[in-house]
Amino acid sequence: MVTKDLGTIGYEEAWALQQQLVEQRKARQIPDILLLLEHPHVFTLGRNARREHLLARPPEVEVHQTNRGGDITYHGPGQLVGYPIFDLGAIRKDVVWYVRWIEEALIRALAEFGIEAGRNRGYTGVWVKGEKVAAIGVHISRWVTSHGFALNVAPELRYFECIVPCGIRQAGVTSMERLLGRRPEMPAVKQAVARQFAALFTTRD
Fold first, then answer.
1. Number of structural domains, the chain?
2. What pLDDT, on a 0 to 100 scale, did the predictor assign at position 93?
């Protein structure tokens, strides 16, 4: 697995890159790649999104429809977004396992910072005391993955008040910054996430 740090990149540009890499991975022209990045302010709507879950739209926030699973979510500065372009045919052809293993990688990465995170029965993502710290939404085509996860490192959480995050009204959203009482260094978080993904996802080719 190769990790590529894209820094800050627009949502449309990142989506075009994902599509290109997915086709290259299907053709076995490239190895599995984990893209790590931050987006400018954007709300994205998954295949199951309900428009009424977009409660307000600040002028600086873009809105994009996507082909990932799930409802509506927010991406922005201070949030680590990861797009794994993985061939599950060379790992394990199991969508539920794949989502659970993304959760596991993030749970282990958070543990490196002293944060005890876990799962919330009935919901995807990574949670700490009933609040979501990481959202997950994926797309799979011929067993090659795209889209992925969004880990709240130190974003402005007020933007989540403009939506019903992931369509879940009864749960809050938190961040590593809020949980730790300090702002973690993004490079260190990227390293921890990349390390855990490399440990958990191994291809056979």
1. 1
2. 96
